[in-house]
Design goal:
two-stranded antiparallel sheet; three-stranded antiparallel beta sheet; extended; 5 strands; 56% helix; mainly alpha
Length: 366
Amino acid sequence: MYLTKENGKIYRKTKHFKRKRDASEWQTIHRKEIQLADSLSKPIPDDGTDLRVVELANCFWKHRTQSGISKKTCDETFRCFKRLFQTIAVRKEDHVCHVTRATAIRIVEELKTICPGNGSAVDACVKTFKAAWNWAILTYDLQCKNPFSKLESAKKAASIPHYMPPMEDLMKVASIAPSSYKAVLFFSLFACGRKIEGHRLQISDTDFAHNRIGLRTRKRKGGIEKIDYIYMNEELAAVLKKHIKTSGCTERVFEGMQLQNGSHMRWLETLCKDADVKKFGLHGLRSLAASTALAKGATIYDVQAMLRHQSLQVTDRYIRRICSSPTAPQILGKVFHEIKKQSTDKLLTINEAPANQSQTDWGSAA
């Protein structure tokens, strides 16, 4: 395959295929990738008077890479603009301010055919484009509106929440689990740790002298890793001490266990099957911890600190989804019946008095 870049250099790459059709498909896909990467390598313009869509993609992608944004987010930005240029609704040479809301709607409709799934990938692309246009409007003082603002979600259906197991099912699984897997279960319940945080947990992060544990998280602005120290109760401390002593781990607490994002918890499925309970995941134990704490008298601020959410609104949505305690409806029902009883007794008293008086008057009249 030969390709002449915009700077005049010739790009050449050779790959052998058994079928001509496979070679043609590879050449077409690889040519588009090289052309996109070549277009994204253009210099950043000084102002936005002649800012085009391909230049916006270049500027915004470089802005994110140079601002300390995580590599995962930068790669997602590159993929979103790559999908954008696969549509026919917009071209690379189009001016940024010429992209209207009608164009944005057509882009979304085309992305639904390009991106597989239930629409989450399309919503991620729209979120990236919205951020890019907002950045360009502020940076280059563009006199135009963001065409991707307030677009309807492309999701076909609401996402299914994590299944929250009852405490009895968890105890059944923990009773038959080996010490290493029991430590993971207790870590997810009592520390409300995520899978990736368990994967990053180091022995130096466990402070048994002061009953605290440090969880390494990157769910912060800029993707910078931060350690959140939380309280470690006696049950979790005892299980972790036994696990560290018997497992022979040297650096990370849960060495050799698949706890990365997207990893399949086959061992947990096997334990649930052996315990004859409904299958659940580790993230469901965070829901169980939050709902149990709230049902037993903890405030929503306590639950927010336990789940380590930056926004109370996130915790509020989280609690509404996972908490189904009947305490509040029972209280309302009890108050309602008490008021209803008082009203009924008062009404009977009022109705009985005139009746007695009328009978007396009739008797005296007779």
